Model the fold of this input.
Amino acid sequence: MKTNKIFVIIIAGVVMFGAIFAFTGFSIKRADMRKKARCTYEVTATVTENSLERSTDNDGNTSRSYHPVYEYTYNGETFVIKSSSGSNPPVFEVGEEVTAYVNPLKPQEIYVPADNTVRTVSTVFMLVGILVAAMGIIIPTTVAILMMKKAKGGNTKPNAAPARVSARRENEYTSADDEPYDKYDDYGGRDEYDDTDRLEYSDKYEDR
Done:
């Protein structure tokens, strides 16, 4: 019973982990789509720099990512904005011109369709989450079904042998009752060769 509880807890943890990953990916994608809906004014932006950012995890491993810096003009005003999403290697070359869309209510916010970093991250999160959650459900269910079939097969096999033995013994008894052996059959049967016949035979022999 204790083992079953631990097994259920592990399954629930795996499914929850996958669900969290999938939900995170969905949230990132939804935020990106909302940003796209807000940014409607088209401009031409120039990549002036790929800003290098370093991050270190708990194990001391350092990772690098390059964030493009865009320069564009909106309503006669020039804006220089660094993207919040980065990649390694960089998505654009310095000096490259790209099409961008500006949020009219907030000109500092832009959406660059050619920069698919955010969309890639969201897709990876969703796929990994769905896969992990599916494995957490399918694998334990398959194992449980196989164990149930094995247990069911083990319970039915021992009863098969006694049944065959009983059937064989019944056939033997039936055959013996249907055709009983009579040691007098060779002499015509008990009805033909009885005590009266023996007396008649004896009298004839004495007369001789």
